[in-house]
Amino acid sequence: MTKVIVFGGSGFLGSHVADKLSEYGNQVSIFDLRQSEFLRKDQQLIIGNILDKGKVEEAISDQDVVYNFAGYADLDTASANPTETAMLNVIGNINILEACIKSGLKQYIYASTIYVYSESGGFYRCSKQSSEIFIEEYQKRHGLNFTILRYGTLYGPRSDLRNSVHRYLKSAIENGEIRIKGTGSDIREYIHVRDAAKISAKIISPEYYNKRFVITGHQAIPVSQLAEMIREILKKPVKIHFDASGESDHYKVTPYSFVPKIGEKFAPDIFTDMGQGLIECLVEISESDKN
């Protein structure tokens, strides 16, 4: 049985990946700042901060594989907090890398972003790009096997208002409107969080060592089309507002720029239909509002 620890395992994507890791027969521990409301009975929870070197080293000491989803995962939050972003996403990542070297574990799996070699993404992109470079250097110097997962636009259960799809759905239900920054022509390859988690949890293998993968969905659609889907699913009047004023760190059509460090695309063969995924989210939001 492989012993796996998931940093940031109480969060949106991290909790889903932790679930899949357990389902696939791994012994899973979660390291996070807060209690996980999704913790399974067969998982261990460690409350801690990735900036606490001693706590991180202790947590990793007997593990085989480390996943790192910790730190700021929201572009807008990172853009508003550059210092905290650097501390959590870069220094926190280095603390985990140092602990990995001391423990001699098999594989370090890092949650990055499709923005990483883009001209968009602001301070979030800066932090992820820097972290990837540190990971590569640790591999060169210490032989630490890594796998970098660059995620696209995720949606699904357990998200909150930091997630754009969640915001659109919640506002449509409660206010009868959807407010979108930009013209609505921006293209996104949405992927359901469980589909991304399945791929992420299966990456534990030597065949994935020292490689980079782009994890996005099959469904590349304009944001305006997503808003129309929501309106049609709800079958009620929903006003859609676009705000193209001001600058944005989000990409328009593609996050990619020409760079030498290409990541292979990893999209699931069996995936959640966008319409079905939106309905699942709507049910979750409606039930949450009742409580």
Summarize the structure.
This protein has nine helices and 13 strands. With 291 residues, it is α/β, with parallel strands linked by helices. It has a single domain, classed as Rossmann fold.
Please describe the topology of this protein.
Blueprint: E1 3-7, H1 12-23, E2 27-32, E3 43-47, H2 53-60, E4 65-68, H3 75-80, H4 82-103, E5 107-113, H5 122-142, E6 146-151, E7 153-155, H6 164-175, E8 177-181, E9 187-192, H7 193-201, E10 211-215, E11 219-222, H8 223-234, E12 239-243, E13 264-265, H9 274-290
Count of spatially separate domains: 1
DSSP strand count: 13
Task: Please report the distance between the alpha carbons of the first and last residues.
Answer: 39 Å
Indicate the CATH class.
Answer: Alpha Beta
Fold and architecture overview:
The protein has 291 residues and is of the alpha/beta class. The protein has one domain: Rossmann fold (3-Layer(aba) Sandwich). The protein has nine helices and 13 strands. It has an eight-stranded parallel β-sheet, sandwiched between helices. Strands 7-9-11 form a three-stranded mixed β-sheet. A two-stranded parallel ribbon has the order 8-12. It is globular, with a radius of gyration of 19 Å. The relative contact order is 0.14.
